[in-house]
Amino acid sequence: MFSLSRLGLALALLLTASVQHPAWSAGGGGGGGGSDSSTVPSPSASVPAEFVRAKNLIKGGKYADAIPLLEQAAGKAPKNPDLFNLLGYSNRKLRRFDVAEKHYGRALALNASHKGTLEYLGELYLQTVGRIRHERC
Question: What domains are there in the chain, each with its CATH number?
Fold first, then answer.
């Protein structure tokens, strides 16, 4: 599943992100899934109504309920990295690590410097390295 060599990648990603974002800060990429302040959304990256509804569910900790809405929104705005970042975030919170990693990868393919995704991918790797260490003991 996850190799220990990813620990190095996780640390590099965390250093790359370098800016800590409080969850759900004003539009920052870290936690809120809002537009990453380092990017300007293109018209193709518009925000569907499902995205807004999903963010509200996520704020309430209803990750499983948010995922279908995020998937619908991603179908309408497939070039919006914020959608895939929140899909990754929601799946990570549900401990679906492989699915989360796939969505984070898609977000980074769309925007390699998406700070929220870099931060959350680092958190994913740290969580999974800890889990791997625990399983080996």
Answer: 5-17+45-136 (1.25.40.10)
